[in-house]
Amino acid sequence: MTGDRSGATPGSDAVVVAQGTFDILHPGHLHYLRDAKAMGDRLVVIVARSTNVTHKESPVVPGPQRREMVAGLDPVDEARLGHPEDIFAPIEELDPAVIALGYDQHHDAEAIRAALADRGIDCEVRRATAHQPDYEGLLSSGQIVDRILDERG
Ligand SMILES: Cc1cc2nc3c(=O)[nH]c(=O)nc-3n(C[C@H](O)[C@H](O)[C@H](O)COP(=O)(O)O)c2cc1C
Ligand SMILES: Nc1ncnc2c1ncn2[C@@H]1O[C@H](COP(=O)(O)OP(=O)(O)OP(=O)(O)O)[C@@H](O)[C@H]1O
C-alpha cells in the first residue's frame, strides 16, 4: 500500500474497500477496481443493495447477480452485498486500511472521514481515477441502457 496506517498490524494484509452499484459491467468498473486494489493488498467490494440506490435509476440486475459478477473480476478478492441500512456496518467489520471512492461517486470524502472518526475507525479515504481509454467507449451502465433503448427499443 502507498500510505502508512497507524492501526495496521505489521505484516498484515492492508484491506481496501471499494463500493458501487455495478449494474451492467464495463471497463470503467474494471479500471476503478484495479486502481483500488493498487491502494493495498486485499480488495473487498461492497455491492450496493438495490433499495439503497436512490440517487439514480434503480439497477436492472438483481443484487446477488451483480455481486457474483464483481466477485469474478481479477482485482477482486471478495465481493459482498452491502448492509441494508447501515453503510458503515461492513466497514466496522472489515476494518480496512483504505476506502477507495470512485472518481465520480457522489459521496463526500470529508463527510465519510467524519463518520469514520465518530465510530473510532482508523481508515484513509482516497479517490480513484477516471478511466480514459484511447477509444470511444460506453463507460457507464446508464449510458449502456440508454443506447439499448435507443437502438433496440
Ligand atoms: C464507505 C461506503 C460504504 C458503503 N456501504 C454500503 C452498504 O453497506 N450497503 C449499501 O447498500 N450501500 C453501501 N454504500 C453505498 C452504495 O455503494 C452507494 O449507493 C454507491 O455509491 C452506489 O452508487 P454508485 O454506483 O453511483 O457509486 C456504501 C458507500 C460507501 C461510500
Ligand atoms: N468510466 C469510469 N472510470 C472510472 N471509474 C468508473 C467509471 N465508471 C464507473 N466507475 C466507478 O465504478 C463504481 C461503480 O459505479 P457505478 O456502478 O455507479 O457505474 P456507472 O456505470 O457510472 O453507473 P451509472 O451510469 O448508472 O451512473 C463507482 O465508484 C464509479 O466511480
UniProtKB/TrEMBL annotation:
* InterPro entries referenced in this protein's UniProt entry, alphabetically: Archaeal_FAD_synthase, Cyt_trans-like, FAD_synth_RibL, Rossmann-like_a/b/a_fold
Sorted alphabetically, the Gene Ontology BP terms of this entry are:
FAD biosynthetic process; FMN metabolic process
> GO terms for molecular function, please?
ATP binding; FMN adenylyltransferase activity
Its keywords, alphabetically, are:
ATP-binding, FAD, Flavoprotein, FMN, Nucleotide-binding, Nucleotidyltransferase, Transferase
Any idea which positions bind ATP?
21-22, 26-29, 104, 131
In the UniProt record, does the keyword Transcription regulation occur?
Answer: no
* SUPFAM superfamilies xref list: Nucleotidylyl transferase
Kindly list the cofactors needed.
a divalent metal cation
Give the top-level enzyme category: transferase
EC number(s): the record gives: 2.7.7.2
Pathway assignment:
Cofactor biosynthesis; FAD biosynthesis; FAD from FMN: step 1/1
Q: Which superkingdom is the protein from?
A: Archaea
Catalytic reaction equation(s): FMN + ATP + H(+) = FAD + diphosphate
Q: Which residues form the Cytidyltransferase-like domain?
A: 18-141
Name any one Pfam family assigned in the record.
CTP_transf_like
The record's comment on protein family reads: Belongs to the archaeal FAD synthase family.
Give the protein's function: Catalyzes the transfer of the AMP portion of ATP to flavin mononucleotide (FMN) to produce flavin adenine dinucleotide (FAD) coenzyme.
What PANTHER family does the record tag this protein with?
Answer: FAD SYNTHASE (PTHR43793:SF1)
HAMAP family (UniProt xref):
FAD_synth_arch (MF_02115)
Instruction: Please give the subunit comment from the record.
Output: Homodimer.
- What is the protein name stated in its UniProt record? FAD synthase
Organism from which the protein derives: Halosimplex pelagicum
